[in-house]
């Protein structure tokens, strides 16, 4: 299996984490968004959206979108709950990550880390923080009552939300006022097979 991704990207890091946590044999192919690696003819032939991450199976099939890739890789593993309601809660958090968390925290990080806070995007950057903090508050409330987002079990929900939360400070977010999130970040980092984001 080949996995295409940018190791600084949270969406790609999710896939890296699942691959390593589950000890799935793979070849990681480093791509640079900034250098235009995802817009070459060769890559667009694999993924017409020009986005990463992407996995290429041994039989040539391709799968994109980070949460879809995680679901495929983790099928029938301990990262997906057996109980139907708990599994639905996991999906609830995955949708939350894509619609209420990533568009604010990841984009603010992109503007600061990748682009260097250009003047023409400062207003947008600052506007992202209110909704980003709202997402963090929702997580903090849940994690004040249980060790992981779906209860006692570490799941794909934790991986998805860990990816950009643990580097939220790179987008100007202050996590010091979220003690339960900080404790949760530590618990995730202690999972067997955990790997750090390769900055």
For this structure, what is the CATH class of the largest domain?
Mainly Alpha
Tell me the series of helices and strands, N- to C-terminal.
EHEHEEHHHHH
For the record, the CATH architecture of the largest domain stands as Up-down Bundle
> Which strands sit side by side, in order, in the main sheet?
2-1-3-4
Largest sheet: 4 strands, mixed
E-strand count:
4
Q: What's the average pLDDT?
A: 96
Any low-confidence stretches, pLDDT <50, length ≥5? none
How many H/I helices? 7
Helix fraction by DSSP (H/I, runs of at least 4): 40-55%
User: What's the number of structural domains?
Assistant: 2
Structural class: alpha+beta
What gap, in angstroms, lies between the N and C termini? Answer: 23 Å
> The CATH topology of the largest domain, please?
Glutathione S-transferase Yfyf (Class Pi), Chain A, domain 2
What form results from the Cα inertia axes?
Answer: globular
State Rg: 17 Å
- Proportion of strand residues: 5-15%
Question: What does this protein look like?
Answer:
The chain has 199 residues and is of the alpha+beta class. It has two domains: 2-73, Glutaredoxin (3-Layer(aba) Sandwich); 84-189, Glutathione S-transferase Yfyf (Class Pi), Chain A, domain 2. It is 50% helix and 7% strand. It contains seven helices and four strands. Strands 2-1-3-4 form a four-stranded mixed sheet, with helices on one face. The mean pLDDT is 96.
